[in-house]
């Protein structure tokens, strides 16, 4: 018997829908975009159909979890997918959905800019830096090296279907009203309003329990396989869902996963509200339980409640933690092999973070600055450095008895205090060619 | 008799508890056991001496779909659908509706289905794979019912000489005490295979490590070579399955 065996059959049996691709890891599964190219990269090219994606967003002061869900819906509408939105106020949620800037949808020229370059604010900075970098003389051995990048661009290749796969959404543009009304009219967008009382214009007219919601989702998903189905559940288990226990939420996620497996042209994205995203909300190991009940669990830990972290990482808005990643037809997640940002092919896993600029949300690798992570001094300067007087010479002043004093000022009369402006001496470093062993400071 | 699950070389007719964590799922152990059981020539029932039907595997799946089992079996050159058709493999899905009834009637129904599949199969070697006991607990099935169910399944397996594999997920093992179900499983198992992620985080060359311990129900005269956590076997998951190697000898190290 020959020791050679054919690795792949080469037969393409899958029906590739618009806005989907065959997974690079397995020709049995299709992947679709989440609307954020850098998040697609972390997932290994995109979210596989038949998989569920869950975000835990423990920060109470921000709504990055909602923002990601909006990208997910916008991408679905742009790709012509069927979308089911399950939330307390679906109309309100859809109001400020992001959209592509006018003209970019038809033209293919927009996408070839990198993620950072296409951002308005950074474009200017980028130009300055470009012109500056041209002046810098780089050592010949490093000249041919690729420029260091912290994220991946929207252009994964020169494919013509690139624009369809992942749209270039702009947060400063909102979705035209006619797109939503058209999607609602053609039943490509289905709204399931979750409410405890069922009085606020609920479509079904009564309160929806998690079991009833599962039934509604099955009804929508099974009504047609003409296009991929996206199920979007922002803030699962928030107050509008009623008082749900950990077991009920686990069962809901487990059922959702089973539905997606049965109807393999559908996928789901869910966000847990801050209260449910706490590690110990449903007992020890709560988030791990959620991870087992879904295919992919990511935590978005924003810095808004932690000024210390924002000062350490001023250019980021939060950290991204990957608990588990989708692997529908493989032993290990395709992301391990194909993700540039995670970087597992070369070494250990990279730390990941996200930032939200005026125009887009970007996931990127987290690095300390070149100087060691800080742009300014964080320890207090010594006394000697403060006023130029050695510490030992202040002894006699300290021995004097201290008397409490109160400063009294007349109302309306303010003395302008002129703080002495001390100009820091700029530190100059120079290399002297005639004395190569010495640097002049 | 061919040993079960090389390189661990376990004997047959045991109750093996497999524990894993979210960062290092032990799916590959279950799939490896399935593939080896169906493919092993020593267990081939169609040999003229034995005159028995092919080997029998019953899969009780609480967390994965048949499509995934089929796709992963195809990586070991197994067409699972053919085995289903000829009755060598029985797939029993357990959905979240199992906990709709508080009396445990549905669990009893599941037990009777398993019992029927196992006892009616006149085969040389039989294997029962239960891929996820933890999910049933987290869905809300009372612990006492689960323990009764497990005790009944174990008794049936011992009676009919069936190898039983049970997978249990550990939750933050460093932070919390072992839960009640895990303690019960340790009592009923004969061997205990633990799959852990690397303590230093994910790596491109090493996925995790496996240690093998004795369970409380292990027989006294047991020749299984146990693997302590400090000298655990490491593995790297590739597309076709796991690559095992001794600690510190992975491709990325040497």
Mind explaining what this structure looks like?
The complex is a heterodimer of chains A (441) and B (254). Chain A has a domain at 24-35 and 45-97 and 170-336: Rossmann fold (3-Layer(aba) Sandwich), CATH 3.40.50.300. Chain A is built from 14 helices and 16 strands. Mean pLDDT of chain A is 78; it is low at 106-127, 199-205 and 384-399. In chain A, helix 9 packs parallel to helix 10. Helix content of chain A is 27%, strand content 16%. Chain A has helices at residues 37-42, 64-79, 90-95, 120-135, 140-143, 162-165, 177-185, 210-222, 246-262, 286-293, 307-312, 335-338, 383-387, 395-399; strands spanning 20-22, 30-32, 47-48, 52-56, 82-87, 98-99, 170-174, 189-193, 229-233, 266-272, 296-302, 318-324, 352-356, 361-365, 430-431, 439-440. Chain A is an alpha/beta fold. In chain A, strands 8-5-9-10-4-11-12-13-14 form a 9-stranded mixed sheet, sandwiched between helices. Chain A has a 3-stranded antiparallel sheet with strand order 1-2-3, with no helix packed on it. Chain B has 254 residues and is α/β, with parallel strands linked by helices. Chain B has one domain (15-40, 54-245): P-loop containing nucleotide triphosphate hydrolases (Rossmann fold, 3-Layer(aba) Sandwich). In chain B, 30% of the residues lie in helices and 22% in strands. Chain B has helices spanning 27-39, 66-74, 80-85, 105-120, 134-139, 143-159, 180-188; strands at residues 15-20, 56-61, 89-93, 126-130, 162-169, 191-197, 208-214, 233-238, 241-245. Chain B has a 9-stranded mixed sheet with strand order 3-2-4-5-1-6-7-8-9, with helices on both faces. In chain B, strand 8 and strand 9 (241-245) form a beta hairpin. The two termini of chain B are 35 Å apart. Residues 47-52 of chain B have low confidence and may be disordered. Chain B: InterPro entries: ELP6, P-loop_NTPase. Chain B: It comes from Crepidotus variabilis.
């Amino acid at each position: 018997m020959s020791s050679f065996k054919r690795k792949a059959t080469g037969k393409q049996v899958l029906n590739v829908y618009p806005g989907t691709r065959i997974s690079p890891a397995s020709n049995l599964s299709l992947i679709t975009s989440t609307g954020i190219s850098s998040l697609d990269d972390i997932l290994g090219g995109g979210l596989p159909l038949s998989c569920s994606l869950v975000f835990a967003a423990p920060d109470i002061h921000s709504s990055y979890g909602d923002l990601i869900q909006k990208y997910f819906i916008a991408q679905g509408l742009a790709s012509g997918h069927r979308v089911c939105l399950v939330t307390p106020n679906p109309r309100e949620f859809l109001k400020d959905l992001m959209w592509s800037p006018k003209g970019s949808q038809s033209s293919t020229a927009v996408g070839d800019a990198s993620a950072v370059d296409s951002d308005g604010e950074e474009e200017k900075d980028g130009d300055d830096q470009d012109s500056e970098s041209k002046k810098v003389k780089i050592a010949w051995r490093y000249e041919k090296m690729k420029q260091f990048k912290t994220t991946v661009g929207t252009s994964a290749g020169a494919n013509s279907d690139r624009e369809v796969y992942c749209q270039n959404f702009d947060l400063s543009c909102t979705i035209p009203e006619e797109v939503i009304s058209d999607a609602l009219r053609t039943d490509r967008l289905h709204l399931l309003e979750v409410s405890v009382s069922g009085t606020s214009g609920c479509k079904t007219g009564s309160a929806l329990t998690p079991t009833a919601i599962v039934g509604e989702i099955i009804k929508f998903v099974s009504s047609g396989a003409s296009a991929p189905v996206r199920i979007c559940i922002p803030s699962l288990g928030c107050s509008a869902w009623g008082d749900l226990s950990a077991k009920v939420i686990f069962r809901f996620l487990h059922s959702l996963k089973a539905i997606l497996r049965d109807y393999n042209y559908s996928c789901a994205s869910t966000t847990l509200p801050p209260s449910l995203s706490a590690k110990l909300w449903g007992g020890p190991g709560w988030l791990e339980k959620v991870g087992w009940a879904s295919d992919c669990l990511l935590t978005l830990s924003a810095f808004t409640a932690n000024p210390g972290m924002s000062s350490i990482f001023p250019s980021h808005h939060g950290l991204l933690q990957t608990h588990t990643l989708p692997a529908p037809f493989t032993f290990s997640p395709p992301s391990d092999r194909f993700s540039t940002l995670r970087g597992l092919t070369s070494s250990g896993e990279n730390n990941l973070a996200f930032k939200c600029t005026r125009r887009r949300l970007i996931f990127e690798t987290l690095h300390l600055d070149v100087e060691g992570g800080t742009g300014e001094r964080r320890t207090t300067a010594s006394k000697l450095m403060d006023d130029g007087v050695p510490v030992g010479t202040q002894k006699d002043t300290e021995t004097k008895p201290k008397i409490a004093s109160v400063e009294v000022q007349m109302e309306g009369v303010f003395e302008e205090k002129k703080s002495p402006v001390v100009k820091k001496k700029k530190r100059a470093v120079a290399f002297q060619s005639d004395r190569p062993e010495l640097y002049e400071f | 008799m061919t040993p079960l699950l090389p390189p661990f070389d376990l004997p047959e007719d045991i109750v093996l508890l497999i524990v894993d964590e979210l960062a290092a799922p032990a799916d590959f152990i279950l799939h490896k056991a399935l593939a080896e059981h169906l493919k092993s020539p020593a267990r081939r029932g169609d040999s003229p001496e034995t005159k028995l039907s092919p080997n029998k595997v019953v899969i009780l799946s609480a967390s994965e779909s048949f499509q995934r089992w089929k796709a992963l079996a195809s990586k070991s050159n197994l067409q699972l659908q053919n085995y289903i058709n000829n009755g060598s493999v029985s797939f029993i899905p357990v959905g979240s509706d199992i906990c709709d009834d508080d009396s445990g009637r549905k669990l009893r129904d599941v037990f009777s289905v398993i019992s029927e599949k196992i006892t009616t199969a006149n085969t040389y070697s039989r294997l029962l794979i239960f891929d996820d006991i933890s999910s049933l607990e987290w869905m809300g099935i009372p612990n006492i019912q689960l323990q009764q169910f497990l005790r009944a399944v174990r008794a049936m397996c011992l009676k009919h000489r069936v190898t039983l594999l049970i997978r249990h997920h550990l939750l933050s093992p460093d932070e919390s005490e072992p839960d009640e179900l895990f303690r019960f499983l340790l009592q009923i198992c004969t061997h205990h295979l633990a799959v852990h992620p690397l303590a230093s985080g994910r790596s491109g060359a090493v996925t995790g490590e496996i240690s093998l311990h004795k369970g409380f129900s292990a027989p006294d005269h047991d020749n299984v070579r146990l693997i302590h956590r400090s000298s655990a076997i490491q593995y790297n998951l590739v597309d076709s399955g796991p690559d095992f190697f001794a600690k510190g000898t992975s491709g990325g190290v040497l």
